[in-house]
What we know:
The complex is a heterotrimer.
Chain A: H1 3-34, H2 40-56, H3 63-87, H4 92-114, E1 119-120, E2 129-132, E3 135-138, H5 139-161, H6 163-173, H7 175-180, H8 185-210, E4 212-213, H9 222-231, H10 237-257, H11 265-277
Antiparallel strand pairs in A: 1-4, 2-3
Helix pairs in contact in A: 1-5, 1-8, 1-9, 1-10, 2-3, 2-4, 2-8, 3-8, 5-6, 5-8, 5-10, 9-10, 10-11
Chain B: H1 10-24, H2 32-58, H3 65-79, H4 85-107, H5 115-135, E1 144-145, H6 159-181, H7 184-194, H8 196-201, H9 206-232, E2 234-235, H10 237-240, H11 244-256, H12 263-277, H13 284-301, H14 305-317, E3 343-354, E4 357-368, E5 372-376, H15 383-391, E6 398-403, E7 406-407, H16 413-419, E8 421-423, H17 436-446, H18 453-467, H19 482-495, E9 500-504, H20 512-527, E10 531-535, H21 539-545, E11 548-553, E12 556-561, H22 563-568, H23 570-576
Parallel strand pairs in B: 5-10, 5-11, 8-9, 9-10
Antiparallel strand pairs in B: 1-2, 3-4, 3-6, 6-7, 11-12
Helix pairs in contact in B: 1-6, 2-6, 2-7, 2-9, 2-11, 2-12, 3-4, 3-5, 3-9, 4-9, 6-9, 7-9, 7-17, 11-12, 11-14, 17-18, 17-19, 18-19
Chain C: H1 2-7, H2 9-27, E1 38-44, H3 51-70, E2 79-85, H4 90-102, E3 108-110, H5 115-128, E4 132-134, E5 148-150, H6 158-171, E6 179-185, H7 188-203, E7 207-214, H8 222-231, E8 235-242, H9 244-254, E9 261-267, H10 269-274, E10 282-285, H11 297-312, H12 322-341, H13 346-356, E11 358-360, E12 363-365, E13 379-384, E14 387-392
Parallel strand pairs in C: 1-2, 1-3, 3-4, 4-5, 6-7, 6-8, 8-9, 9-10
Antiparallel strand pairs in C: 10-13, 11-12, 13-14
Helix pairs in contact in C: 3-11, 3-12, 4-5, 6-7, 8-9, 12-13
Amino acid sequence: xxxxxxxxxxxxxxxxxxxxxxxxxxxxxxxxxxxxxxxxxxxxxxxxxxxxxxxxxxxxxxxxxxxxxxxxxxxxxxxxxxxxxxxxxxxxxxxxxxxxxxxxxxxxxxxxxxxxxxxxxxxxxxxxxxxxxxxxxxxxxxxxxxxxxxxxxxxxxxxxxxxxxxxxxxxxxxxxxxxxxxxxxxxxxxxxxxxxxxxxxxxxxxxxxxxxxxxxxxxxxxxxxxxxxxxxxxxxxxxxxxxxxxxxxxxxxxxxxxxxxxxxxxxxxxxxxxxxxxxxxx
Amino acid sequence: xxxxxxxxxxxxxxxxxxxxxxxxxxxxxxxxxxxxxxxxxxxxxxxxxxxxxxxxxxxxxxxxxxxxxxxxxxxxxxxxxxxxxxxxxxxxxxxxxxxxxxxxxxxxxxxxxxxxxxxxxxxxxxxxxxxxxxxxxxxxxxxxxxxxxxxxxxxxxxxxxxxxxxxxxxxxxxxxxxxxxxxxxxxxxxxxxxxxxxxxxxxxxxxxxxxxxxxxxxxxxxxxxxxxxxxxxxxxxxxxxxxxxxxxxxxxxxxxxxxxxxxxxxxxxxxxxxxxxxxxxxxxxxxxxxxxxxxxxxxxxxxxxxxxxxxxxxxxxxxxxxxxxxxxxxxxxxxxxxxxxxxxxxxxxxxxxxxxxxxxxxxxxxxxxxxxxxxxxxxxxxxxxxxxxxxxxxxxxxxxxxxxxxxxxxxxxxxxxxxxxxxxxxxxxxxxxxxxxxxxxxxxxxxxxxxxxxxxxxxxxxxxxxxxxxxxxxxxxxxxxxxxxxxxxxxxxxxxxxxxxxxxxxxxxxxxxxxxxxxxxxxxxxxxxxxxxxxxxxxxxxxxxxxxxxxxxxxxxxxxxxxxxxxxxxxxxxxxxxxxxxxx
Amino acid sequence: xxxxxxxxxxxxxxxxxxxxxxxxxxxxxxxxxxxxxxxxxxxxxxxxxxxxxxxxxxxxxxxxxxxxxxxxxxxxxxxxxxxxxxxxxxxxxxxxxxxxxxxxxxxxxxxxxxxxxxxxxxxxxxxxxxxxxxxxxxxxxxxxxxxxxxxxxxxxxxxxxxxxxxxxxxxxxxxxxxxxxxxxxxxxxxxxxxxxxxxxxxxxxxxxxxxxxxxxxxxxxxxxxxxxxxxxxxxxxxxxxxxxxxxxxxxxxxxxxxxxxxxxxxxxxxxxxxxxxxxxxxxxxxxxxxxxxxxxxxxxxxxxxxxxxxxxxxxxxxxxxxxxxxxxxxxxxxxxxxxxxxxxxxxxxxxxxxxxxxxxxxxxxxxxxxxxxxxxxxxxxxxxxxxxxxxxxxxxxxxxxxxxxx
Lengths: 282, 584, 406
């Protein structure tokens, strides 16, 4: 096996890992700060992806403009979803079922509008690769990874350094006391939900750029993205990125050195070992 | 969801009757579609019920139920052509149980494993298992056909055999869940789900119980999988390990009510009937949307599941009249002091550090049978840590603990509880979803007395009247006020039959009037025969109650002896200077 | 969700109309027929992961029933298709076939598509000795029931015959094709054929540069692409279901590699033909809307109606091909046998079909070989000028088209 093959595979793993992180970022926020395990996050991602396909494919809009349109739209979606869930005071357990129900609705909606068949966004936007020595750096993946990294870092910094982030963490420990200090818990949770929605929108736009879409694929992302969220420690924006990379790269290396069908074994065995022997680090 | 106050076998009898009815059904030659549909119900009932024995009862949510179910599926797929059917089913169950038990044994040793990590772990387990099966001759990729498996013919129609197996597995799972729920095992699991640390300290062997629950749950899932392989007759990895299995199992259980043996079955019947009813070819999409809407609406309006909803209705009807505040007969002001006996607890040079901070630094202490030992010291002096070490919550870095003549240093919390050590918490930690009565029953069953259910129940009622909570026996702890919850803690400690009871700031947060009744209560407890370690900031109470006083500061004992003399000790005074809480 | 739906209400109305029309098609259109309908029961995966193909079969069935009822239907009676949605779940499929037979009491069965669901249906049909005509069943040796009739004639040993046929075509050009790579999804029927191709290629003297299996549903094709690039075979055989072929091609493009020659089994045909990367891609087919098939007037009508319906339903790719052809031939086999024997009796139909086979839009189908399989009617097709053309065997090749091998 050559160094080029290994290097190219690791690059590929970094790209898929970044995507796991990008898709998991909104999920990890709402799980920790809203106590909502939002399976509908995946539905939002796919709705955004299909919308991106529609606007940038048949619609002919430039993909970057589409991202700029889709993100605020899904901010509103996330906001509305949270308002709904809060109205009914949904707890963590129930949120799984309700958001799963929403996911089924979204899947149905997608199949109704776009049929169950595969759709693929054909675009010339950032097609091709840069070459770096023997390695190829595909432009679309580079942009996606950069966006994932940037969003994870900005989110982490936002939570850590801004007043809003501190208020959020205070509200988590003790909502009543935080409220008595003037923390607007309700507004903050709607804000977080909106941000999570917008992140789903951005993730979906990249999904459309990089992947073929089919409505039932919504469910195929559950496992790996949930794993990244949990491994990265729920609520941690940098953690989900690191965990995503760990999963993506270990998968890619397995695919390069053995039969690709063994790919899931490496990251998930690694994950089990980490959980068993090093649980406090997760 | 509480266990009924009086054990009733109605549930079990109903399950038995249903089993007989289902088993006899093929004699009447029903439409095979009915059998086939009922089989699907049975399959999901078995899976959802097995899931709830672990996840519903203990609160550890498994996303990996597909792994245990899949182990069973592939057991039949591989053995079906070579071994008799019962071997396949047993093998499916055992393989799954061994897998589950092994996983449980490894992961539950992790101290206070966070629930979400357990979920992740089980998810990962399912993926790893699927990958292994996909890439080895267990499947290898092309799927396994079971067309060649010969089924024993029990009724006229051979496919009735599968129906019958499904019925037996489902009813067996329900009966298992029923037995678990109303056994001390189940009570222990519920206690774990509410507060694992407290459960351990009250004597519940939490590690063993969790592993056992996981193994039992996996076994049932494995058997269900082993039968289901026969039903689908062609198994593939993609289908077997798809995320829909664990997801639907969770949906069904939560929808029906995950803390009750019957809840998952109700959820399973609801969801399966719904998906089977909506199969019309022309409105497939609309039907699927309707499933989504139903899940949402049902969850919104039944937040605690169908069973929870029914229980609320029932409780609302049976609501007792407003309970009176506890009245405690005032004990004599100066009770006859009981004779002080032999050494009951010996702490020998106990050390404990957290990340370099020395919480306990060579504590040597004797507690004598029958005394009330006061334990005081400024905040952060190590009082709570010492109690945690004695109760077994922390293991000391060095030193020895001898209780009633036995070395208990290496014993887990539940073993110490069995030996007769009990404690209360400064901020009460009742099992929030168990009734007041059941909280006390748990202590009676798992504590030093180790009573059977009936005796524990009877005694629990007595202890509740002893602390004046008998009128609130069926209430949930959250319906009690702080004073009452503190007394509930006392009742639990008493019910355990402990020889040594450690009272951690029972008076904190009480009104002066309540303090008076609480002091009387401590006297009564002492009079009933227990040795007491009394941790308190309220010096008036300490002086009134204790025979002997120990003062801790910075993890060391700085003085001990007669309470009044100790309080004059200059070292003690200087330790307390600036500590605003301590007003002698 | 509520807020999301009305944001995109514009296209939904169009589809509402399309759905109403499609739904109407199955219940209306009773033409020259009279008497109580002949009820034909079956399931399709209309929702869930297999729904893309399910939608094709739904249109095909609706069209067939509509057209047949304009003529003589079955026995002069109208055909009523009792269609249920098995939600892509084999266990549900089994229960639904029980229901069709014992509750809905249908006269005849028409099978689903896809190996697992057909097997579920077959085990039920077997218990009632019902004839089961089905479409795309990928692993013939698993079909042991003696009254099943495949509408997708791929012979009893496609792993052998199909692979040889394809290699015949590839080698017919005389070009130097000495090495091969097999990359396959572990989707059962796909992997089954890929393993066969590997054996055949080796047996016939080609050198294997690479053999890879990947998990069905794999997301990341980067490392696989890097390994294909390194192996650089003369022909790349890809066992691909759905869009996996396109995904590999895109991953290859990103590392500036174009396979010399490439073949896909069983890709989503439209997407591969439409992609610029699909140039010269080979695949298998049993039916295309091309001569000689389209010389048959019934096939031509079917193809025209299919395109209209598929367009209405919003399919991204509207040409009928293997799935549509196999679906249609299943209906033809069943209806033909009924009308030839004037019987709905399963014994009679079985005897007739075994003896006489059936005439369909994909040609003469026979059931006289092992386990009711007959000739292997698979052909090799290739993307040429952005469209599929049948290129092998020569006698059925699209006029003017020959296989392109580099």
